[in-house]
Design brief:
Number of domains: 1
CATH topology: Rossmann fold
Oligomer: single chain
CATH class: Alpha Beta
CATH architecture: 3-Layer(aba) Sandwich
Number of helices: 4
Number of strands: 9
Radius of gyration: 15 Å
Helix content: 25-40%
Shape: globular
Order of helices and strands: EEHHEHEEEEHEE
Strand order of the largest sheet: 5-6-4-3-7-8-9
Strand content: 35-45%
Largest sheet: 7 strands, mixed
Structural class: alpha/beta
Length: 171
């Protein structure tokens, strides 16, 4: 098994001073590393049952869509306000360095559907919590959350208490 943490790039003070940005493009550009990341992520959730994967713009698309494809389930994109063409539900939430609004198509999640949330990063938990709330607004059940990277020192898991959280690389 490859230790993927050794292949990530740290970019200090991006997008603003005090933020240690962890760049996953170093893994994404290498097909062996990218496939290894996806395989390891799928193994982390092999005990969970889910009908569909949800991923937030934009790196949640990059990680979530291939996880959905490999698990033979559909993928639902969660986008920033005004980017989806049909009727949406929305939620405002706090980020590590600001606030934003996320939207999901109103018909994206069927009531009772078991949903796996996939994203590249769990930091303060704001985006994860917003995804949970959107899914539950539509009657879906959150089966779990899966992250490539978790910044444990930011305690994002506190906003996801009560749900299974799996992270491949924890800093």
């Amino acid at each position: 098994m490859i230790d993927l943490s050794e292949h990530l790039r740290h970019v200090p003070d991006f997008p603003e001073a005090g933020i240690d940005f962890i760049d996953i493009t170093t893994v994404l550009k290498d097909p062996v590393l990218f496939k290894e990341a996806l395989n390891q992520m799928l193994e982390l959730v092999s005990d969970l049952e889910f009908d569909i994967v949800v991923g937030s713009e934009s790196r949640g698309f990059i990680m979530g869509a291939p996880v959905a494809l490999a698990a033979d389930v559909g993928f639902v994109p969660v986008r920033k306000k005004g980017k989806l063409p049909a009727e949406t539900v929305s939620i405002c939430y706090d980020l590590e360095y600001g606030s934003d609004t996320l939207e999901m198509h109103k018909d994206a999640i069927k009531p009772g559907a078991k949903v796996l949330i996939v994203d590249d990063l769990l930091a303060t938990g704001g985006t994860a919590r917003a995804n949970i709330d959107l899914i539950e607004q539509l009657g879906g059940e959150v089966a779990g959350l899966l992250f490539f990277i978790e910044l444990g020192y930011l305690e994002g898991r506190k906003k996801t208490e009560g749900y299974p959280v799996r992270s491949l690389v924890i800093f």
